[in-house]
Amino acid sequence: MASDEKPVCRGDWHPLDSSRSVPSLLVERDGQVRAVAQDGTELASSVFLTLDISPRVGSIPRRIGFADGSLFETTDNAAIDTLQRVHGRKRAGIIHRLERFHPRLVIFVLAVFLLSGLVYRYALPVLVEVAVAVTPPVVPRLMSISTLETLDRTVLSETKLDEAKRRAISDGFARIALNSDHGSSAYTLNFRKGGTIGPNAFALPDGTLIITDELVDLAGGDTEMLIGVLAHEIGHVELEHSLRQIYRAAGMAGLIMLIAGDVGDSVEDLLVQGGGLLALSYSRDAEAAADRHSVELMQKAGYDPTAIARFFEIIEAKLGDTSATNILSTHPGTPERRKAILDYEAQLREKPAQN
Amino acid sequence: MSTLDTAPVPAASQEFHRLSFTGNAAEYFGIWIVNILLTIVTLGIYSAWAKVRRNRYFYGNTVLLGRAFEYHAKGKQILIGRLIVLGYLVVYNIVLAVLPIAGLLLFLVVLCFFPWLIMRGLRFSARVTSYRNVRFDFVGRMGGAFVAFMAGPVIAVLSLGLLAPLASRWMYRYLANNLRYGGRAFAADPKLGPIYKTWFFSALIIVLGLLIIAVAALANLSLIMALINNPDALPPGFQASMFVLGVIAYLTVLLSFGIAALFYRAGVRNIAWSATRFDGRHALKSDLSRFRYVWIALSNVAVTVLTLGLMRPWAAVRMARYVNEHTAIRFDGDVGEILAATGQEGTAVGAEFMEFEGFDFGF
Fold it and tell me: Which of A10, B41, B119, B145 is most solvent-facing, going by the fewest CB within 10 Å?
């Protein structure tokens, strides 16, 4: 009988759900795997197929569950691997073999960097487009209402502009809004005193636009230029830039959490912040796209298509902003933008001429 | 090999038995990188199994009295839990698109179910954990989860952090008083006084950070005033240096809040764990050095970032080792008998756990 007995390894045996443990031996005898105490008493036995063997992870102890619910624990991972192989489980432990510290891990590291890059470059934009497509209109509406309310409570205050000036701007705005894709009913223009945010114009995702008194003052009577700036903001709304940016940030955070799993709390925060920096470079593209949109829209409405370029001239002259684009800015360098607008206008002019 | 061969249980003693961590960075590196690689290749599906392997590695290397803890969750359970959450989000968005009002209702439902989800998540985590073949369990209710994880943080924020110690106390009481091992209860009653003491030091760190910024701002007051009065007057060079100053101020705020939070976390852990008893008489202890804890956490982040994440496994192992080595338990009486007796009552938990409850938010 002892002739076909094969000892597998030493370990500890637990009865079902008990912390009591018995130092014992795992042996194979008569086609059964058995846990045997040191004095030879058999504690449990099962055929190999019914054993519940936990997969190997590093060098943590292995659990072998018997059919009766009792458990054999051992640190002798190699012996359990052999036992599985003998019984034809060739694929058992394949993940563990991949995980072992080995030069091949260098290839894995490179593959992870490459694949993450691909996900960021190709998969993320697709996800963002899908999300934008399925977002119901009520979401940007709610977002905008709460944003405007917050701004009104904190920084913005009532406009001090005179009626005539407002009327002139509103009329011009109505003209370009009529020529926009969404039509004039999609947009409402609000006048506010900007306070700490100074000369500015911005669009909320539902088509609510805000222009500050300070910006109107800066324009110094050049209403057409202000219309150009508003056309730029309409561009942001039509191209759904704010939604895209939100989804992009959320998508980045989601991917970071899913893929990285264990990067640690603080590193995760840093990654999300770094994602924000990357989103800035994306917002530079968005600015350029909105600039082009302004040129097109102004042309359609019969205004000077390059009116917004005059705005950049003013910024350059008055604020001394001649800096080139850098990674920390949300907007491209001003001279660059002005040149891009003039180039695009020239391009648009040439096209119909060729036809 | 040494952790389990004989697994002797020491006889009665009055000293604290410390946990240890037997894993190492090289071994974990392989597990970690393969987890990430397979998660990407399988479009995220493997992340459930990755979590199981990661947790099994960390639990399995957490050793008390020569025996390791075990993590029993299966990848499939966690995947199903994640799919349900994902499915809900998809349904939620579709309903929102068709019927905005119904969508808002669904959102309210989620809000109400949040304590329930937290409670189930905690129960799941406890039930898939075992030590010496005896499972943990968590018997907390929804109401307690609401107080500990929703009301607490809200009042902490609303009181600008002044009531944060109260929130910490609620949370630790909910966690510890509902934890069971082999049917025996844990009980904790961390006192507010000591928590406020550690909170006070954390608040001091934040004040110090803000003070540094205030001093820097005062030193440049004339410049700032000039900027506010007449933004155009400053040459671009000055504006750039103001920008750099702003960035530094931002980092200082971030760093002082970060350090304060870590300092507080370690301090409260010490207080709460050391105020916890198992089965009415066995004392737990945590004696993290707050400075050392902050140092390990911060240098871990720095090393991880500087190596593009590649040293993260080393950092994780380093932190696990430090925390484990400063966590201990003192058994009142013969340890072998205590654990054997606990084991007798462990049956009910073990049989029930396999029911599906893979909601798992990684608490």
Answer: B41
